[in-house]
Design goal:
- This protein is mainly beta.
- The chain has a single domain, classed as Jelly Rolls.
- Helix content is about 15%, strand content about 35%.
- It binds calcium ion (2 copies).
- One calcium ion (CA) binds near residues 64, 65, 98 and 100.
Amino acid sequence: MRWSHCLGGMLGSAALAAALPAAAYDVTSFDPNAFFTSGSAPLPAEVAALDAAAGLAGLTIERFEDLTLEPGLTLEFSGGAPVAVLPSGSLVNEPSAAWDGSLSLAALMDLVPSQPVVVRQAPGVDVIAIGLSGIDHSHELVVNGENLGPVDALPGFQTSPGDNGRALYVRVDREPGDPPLTELSIEPDPMLANPNGDFIRIDHVATGSTATVPGVSAPALLLLAASLGLVAVRRLRPASAPGSGV
Ligand SMILES: [Ca+2]
Ligand SMILES: [Ca+2]
């Protein structure tokens, strides 16, 4: 199943759209219930099914089972400075939150002071994908500085009030001609009124090149999977690319 969405319409301003780079991102989201059959820790076969459906073969996957991040990857979260080695105590053992292994990263989202979760990859990649858990507010997905809207509006999102269960797996691809993806952030819900913020979990962050299947683009593979009912796809394109939106 495919959804179309006009990013220019979201921006609501031709002037603002013109000020932004002519980037088009494919955002693909995956319902965790398609892969994980219980709230228990992920089984290897369940993770393998996610990897296959999301086309993660050949990508570098940060599994958050130890404190050292994969080369080129840095994280900013809970109001801290960007790090390549996580502070001790950052990882939690919560079976229903993990997207692989047993551990995931705990982050506190808040507005005052602003505490986003920011994934950076230098010098940049074609794909950034992330497993999100424990999302209790409308936090926003921002890619290379472009706000693509609230995460909980993406197809397949699972609300997990009162716990930190798996909410959604999100994959973002750049289009040909776009600059490399260097930053994916989850920005705090602008309506967040909870003075205690929102604790979320992230896991299974995949980054890398899409040149793993010659002749067939990763987005095309994902759309094929979507046509088979395996995933829900939502593509976001700017208004400056008429006729290319689907
Ligand atoms: Ca993990
Ligand atoms: Ca939460």
